[in-house]
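With this grant's support, we have settled on a layout for protein records. An illustrative entry appears below exactly as we store it:
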Amino acid sequence: MGTLDDKKKDIKSMELKELEEDMAAIGEKTFRAKQIYEWMHEKLAEDFGQMTNIGKGLQEKCRERYSYTSFQVAQVQESALDGTKKFLFGLADGNMVESVWMKYKHGNSVCISSQVGCRMGCKFCASTLDGLERNLLPSEMLEQVYAITRLTGERVSHVVVMGTGEPLDNYGNVVKFLRLLTDGNGLHISQRNITVSTCGLAPKMRALAEEGLQITLALSLHGATDEKRQKLMPVAKQYSLAELMDACAYYFERTGRRLTFEYSLMAGVNDGAGDAARLAGLARGLNCHVNLIPINPVKETGFRPGTRKEAMQFQELLEKKGVHVTVRREMGRDIDGACGQLRHRHMKRGRS
């Protein structure tokens, strides 16, 4: 497993221009940066030793100067229902992070984590049960995609930053990750095939609109009134729905990208006809798509999904009011499908 060392530079988090400057600083030709960058981000090398065209001397110099992030898998769960795979990766500092690989007709999608744990405290989410440990580096977010590509032997075409953590709470690292992931000198995944989710950090949503990226921004709504959101999501006490809708409108104005509202359906909590009417009122004023998610049950939270029929009825109420809406296909229901579940279970086993 690659290691992270505070005394060394994290080479996989460096953009090509940074690496070129660094190569020049250590007396190497700048074209060496392009070779190393290609090995890391296109050929997905697991260490410097696999970089066969840079020479033993430069390999050794790199080991001395840089840390190199490369994951080994700690556990894999595979769904017997749809082939979804959930990976638990061990990090260099002993922490764990989880990622999900899903196969669709339009290509292979990977859902990655942006933090070890989460501090947002959403009442229905397994990610937040153990609090926030730390932010992930750009290299650690990239390596979730790279390791899964190596392990499955299949190209990833879509990436969603919707696993453990609040991406906009790790803003700088996430933006750098997005630039590296979409760089033409690396995997070059289309920005239009990337979705970043947020529970509603309005100022960071506005900042993201200024980055010049063409990604999809998904707002985790889960309630259509401030009162309901505040009961489910502590962040709602800081940023009102009015502020969030303004930030959404600004994001569309600056990027031209349609937004997604993520709405987890919880039986008896937010799935009534009144909830649908209020949600439609929010959605109609924006260029957005509503993604209904039958919640994955997490024992510790007590929330449960309704029936498929009830989800379809909720969808129909929205459609009648002119809202673009789908019910998300449930993936990995027979494994630890909810964000953070696999890591939380692993940690519980370790403590016991």
User: Anything to note?
Assistant: The chain has a mean pLDDT of 92. The longest strand covers residues 96-104.
